[in-house]
Each structure stands twice: as structure tokens, then as C-alpha cells.
Amino acid sequence: MRTVTCTAIAAALILMAPACKQQETAASNEPAAATTEAAATDISVLNGTWKTDRDSVKFEGKPDEFVLKDGKFTCSTCIPPVDLVADGQFHEVTGRPYADHMSIKAVDDKSLEWKSQKGGRDTFAATFSVSADGNTLTRKFKDMTTPNAPPVEGASSSKRVGAAPAGAHAVSGQWMAEHVNEYSEDALNATYKVEGNKVSWSGMGQSYTAELGGPAVPVTGDIGGTTVQVSVEGNGLKEVFTRDGKVVSEAVTVPSADGQSVTWTSTDPRDGSKVSGTAKKTS
Fold it and tell me: Where do the record's region annotations for Disordered lie (predicted)?
């Protein structure tokens, strides 16, 4: 799932597998109340284009857990959990806004391929590879969820924090994300425009315009039906992303005193995971 704002990289970076984190849990979708704080805080400093420093990205939360054994692949930490025959064929899946079919295939004893489709169109592809010592997992991905936009490509590395079950493939076990190794340069950029009480965002084929303290609005270009509400929180902008009235991500972007950089944090209330980083103003 490609999540918008300066946290555009957050969702894909958590797992490098957008098909994993797409099942919502119950949460309120009541419009954020307009407050005197919103009226008093000037967030127009966010006007412009911001580029995330991928070296600044940090991950917090529980490790990912995969098992590939006896021709079957499971991901117990995925939302919803994944349970597929790992035969390289596309199998129907439900409850996922960015995929209706998925495919898992063991390439060799240390790597696998993961692919997703929706409506007959490729939306995601990844290769998971384990180092020779078995302690590092590298995930290279290609996110094609947004129609008529360039794909987002990148890679991350994770360290092993849990052993694989006896007889299982090397990708099995528990893995904690550590570093962003690669990421499409254009996809690191996000552009904000603040006019009065309206906030607009755009990047990599997606966009929205929402009113501070107003109702949720659709994210244009998002095939998963995501909506966003915006409000002021402290000295920054808070964005709450929902699907079907259930919160899937909350992002807070806070500008620096000189207005030349921002700190962003994206949290997923469904599993408590968090991704944070900084971005610098480029224009």
C-alpha cells in the first residue's frame, strides 16, 4: 500500500510487501473537531516540496514472521494473515484493497518471489533474499498500485530476531526491519499547499485536498479507497487515513523552527508499528 504525505514511503518500508498490511480493525471515523489551536497555528510553512532522507528512516514495532515449509507460505503478522500454497501460481485472496490474487514461489533455498494482482493488473512484486550467514533478509520490491504513475521501487534490510522452524526455508523466522537500502528518488518527494484552512498534498500520481478539522476526503489515485482527514496537532499537521471508516494509519508532520525541514511519524494502530524520518525542503 502506498501511503501518502511525507510518510509516502512508510507503508511500503515496514514490510516491503504492501499486500500484507491491508485489513482494517474497528476505529472511529468521526470528523476531527475544529479547534482554536487549528486557527492559531500557522502550518503554511509546509508549503513546498519535501524530500525524505531515507537514511533517517527508523522502524519500531513487532518483527515480521514468515514460514515457508512443505510447499506452503504463511505470514502470521500480516494484516490479514497470509496462508498460500507456494507454487508460483496466482491464487484468489479476499479482504485486501490492493490485491485480489497473490503468488508465492521459492526461487532457491535462500530466496522467494511474492507477487500481487488486482483486476488482472500487476500491483506488486518482491524478492526476499537471505544472506549466506542466514541473519539478514533483503527485500527488493516494485509497487505498481497507482495507475498511470511510475512504479515505486526500493529495497530494505532486516535482521533475524527469531529462528526458522526445523526444515523450513531460509526466509522463515522473525525479522526486524533496520535499513532502507534503496528507494525511487521521485517517490521520496511530497508536495503540500496550504491555503487558509485547506491542505492539498500530491505525489507519485496521488493527491488530496482536505479542510482542517473537516470530514474525510478521498485520496485521488488510490485504488484501495483510502480517505484522509487533516487537523493541526501541536505545531504540525496530523493526517488520519481510513478505509471503510476504519483507521489504517495516522501521520504527524512537524516543521523545524527555520521551516527548512520536517520530522514525520507514521503509526499503524492495527499492530502498533511506527515508521519515522526527516525530510528537507527542496522548493
Answer: 142-161, 256-283
Strand partners, 202: 191, 207
CA separation (Å) from 214 to 220, 235, 238?
A: 17, 18, 12
| Start-end of H helices in the chain | 10-15, 36-40
The C-alpha atoms of residue 196 and residue 179 are separated, in whole angstroms, by 38
Which one, of 112, 73, 110, 98, lies nearest residue 20 by Cα?
98
| pLDDT single digits (tens) 41-94 | 689 999 999 999 999 999 999 999 999 999 999 999 998 899 999 999 999 999
CATH architecture assigned to 25-58+188-281: Beta Barrel (2.40)
What's the distance, CA 140 to chain centroid? 14
C-alpha Rg value of the chain to the nearest Å? 19
Check if the beta carbon of residue 65 is closer than 8 Å to that of residue 75.
yes
Closest CA to 107 of 135, 73, 76: 73
Within 86-213, strands assigned E span 91-92, 101-108, 111-118, 121-130, 136-143, 152-162, 173-183, 189-195, 198-203, 206-211
Handedness of CA 213, 217, 222, 224 (dihedral sign): positive
Domains 25-58+188-281 and 60-183 are alike in CATH topology:
yes
Do 8 and 204 form a contact (C-beta atoms < 8 A)?
yes
Contact between residue 97 and residue 224 where contact means Cβ atoms under 8 Å apart: yes
As beta bridge partners, residue 204 has none
Question: Residue 274 belongs to what H/E stretch?
Answer: strand 273-281
Instruction: Answer yes or no: pTM beyond 0.90.
Output: no
Pick the CATH number of 60-183 from 3.30.300, 2.40.128, 2.60.40, 2.40.30: 2.40.128
For the chain, the structural domain boundaries read: 25-58+188-281, 60-183
